[in-house]
């Protein structure tokens, strides 16, 4: 059986590290913890799991810290996680099965990242990441923020999910790193410009963020999935200030990069519904119900826009148009996808009072 090193970089993670290591500690053969300056009980928690702990002076470079953690690994494969990640019971079983059947021809194993959830705990955003790599390939991390592994070779896409249990937000940390780099004269590449724009939005610096995103889009060098997200974020900002024309412009711009997506169609539907242009709202929501979810798992997909959400909104639209039967039917369809949603359950009660079964 091949061996696995877990490599992590941490700082002040006492609230989450125990949960992470409890879920994965028995699955790996060694735990490498690289601490970048904790002042809490992070190291004490790591010691309980017999981790090998190394200190690394923080230099505002996540890739450098991760590469250092990889350099300390001694196993055949390296698994990386963040401190607020866990494996749930079903995924622990899948991981054990994978470990027993690792193929030496495989250079990297990708896994799903369950990143965002609704108030019921349902996954609404997930995507793939290369999670476990062959140590002898000496893969390197790149990017001082929003780092990535440059994987070349044979990749196996597993159905294992890593679940993100966020407790703390990064706050201004990342945006400060970007601004310092720019101040030092560092020239951001296309990928870095995109993530800089995201950080500006996350820190509510919207006007500057729009300028950065537009520069990124105008350069036309980015990954199509990032292009689409940039457009969606700009659209959401304009919809938020009720500038529906500008918001729609950026929804339509997503069509330049791929076929229409459920996310853009639902945004367009919502914009027209908010302006009481119900027929137009129906058009976009109906289109969303007919779309296939993109086949690639590497992009950022909002699962709801391909399942219950457009049907719930069509329930509203058709009721406003006076077509109660269609309204009822769309709520029924929405319920098949998500029978725990409070709005859907409220509608079910409402329709029962109208005599529907």
UniProtKB/TrEMBL annotation:
Domain of life: Bacteria
Domain (Glycosyltransferase 2-like): residue spans on this chain: 5-126
InterPro entries: Glyco_trans_2-like, Nucleotide-diphossugar_trans, TPR-like_helical_dom_sf, TPR_rpt
UniProt xrefs under PANTHER family: GLYCOSYLTRANSFERASE, POLY-BETA-1,6-N-ACETYL-D-GLUCOSAMINE SYNTHASE
Protein name: Glycosyltransferase family 2 protein
Species of provenance: Vallitalea guaymasensis
């Amino acid at each position: 059986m091949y061996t696995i090193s877990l490599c992590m970089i941490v700082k002040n993670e006492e609230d989450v590290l125990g949960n992470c290591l409890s879920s994965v500690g028995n699955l790996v053969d060694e735990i490498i913890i690289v601490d970048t300056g904790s002042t809490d009980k992070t190291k004490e928690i790591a010691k309980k799991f017999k981790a090998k702990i190394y200190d690394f002076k923080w230099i505002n470079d996540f890739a450098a810290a991760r590469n250092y953690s990889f350099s300390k690994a001694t196993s055949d494969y390296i698994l990386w996680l963040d401190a607020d990640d866990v494996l749930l019971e079903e995924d622990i079983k899948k991981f054990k099965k994978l470990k027993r059947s690792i193929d030496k021809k495989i250079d990297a194993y990708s896994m799903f990242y369950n990143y965002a959830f609704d108030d019921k705990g349902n996954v609404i955003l997930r995507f793939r990441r290369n999670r476990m790599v062959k140590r002898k390939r000496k893969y390197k991390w790149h990017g001082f923020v929003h780092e990535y592994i440059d994987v070349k070779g044979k990749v196996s896409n597993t159905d294992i999910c890593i679940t993100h249990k966020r407790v703390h937000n990064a706050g201004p940390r990342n945006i400060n790193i970007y601004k310092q780099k720019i101040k030092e004269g560092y020239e951001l590449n296309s990928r870095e410009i995109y993530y800089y724009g995201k950080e500006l939005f996350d820190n509510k610096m919207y006007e500057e963020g729009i300028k950065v995103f537009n520069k990124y889009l105008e350069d036309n060098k980015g990954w199509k999935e990032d292009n689409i997200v940039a457009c969606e974020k700009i659209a959401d900002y304009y919809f938020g200030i009720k500038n529906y024309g500008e918001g729609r412009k950026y929804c339509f711009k997503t069509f330049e990069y791929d076929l229409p997506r459920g996310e853009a169609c639902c945004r367009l539907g919502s914009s027209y519904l908010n302006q009481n242009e119900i027929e137009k709202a129906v058009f976009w929501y109906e289109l969303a119900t007919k779309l296939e979810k993109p086949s690639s798992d590497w992009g950022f997909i909002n699962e709801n826009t391909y399942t219950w959400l457009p049907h719930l909104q069509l329930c509203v639209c058709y009721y406003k148009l006076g077509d109660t039967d269609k309204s009822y039917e769309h709520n029924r369809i929405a319920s098949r996808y998500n029978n725990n949603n409070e709005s859907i359950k409220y509608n079910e009660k409402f329709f029962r009072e109208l005599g529907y079964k």
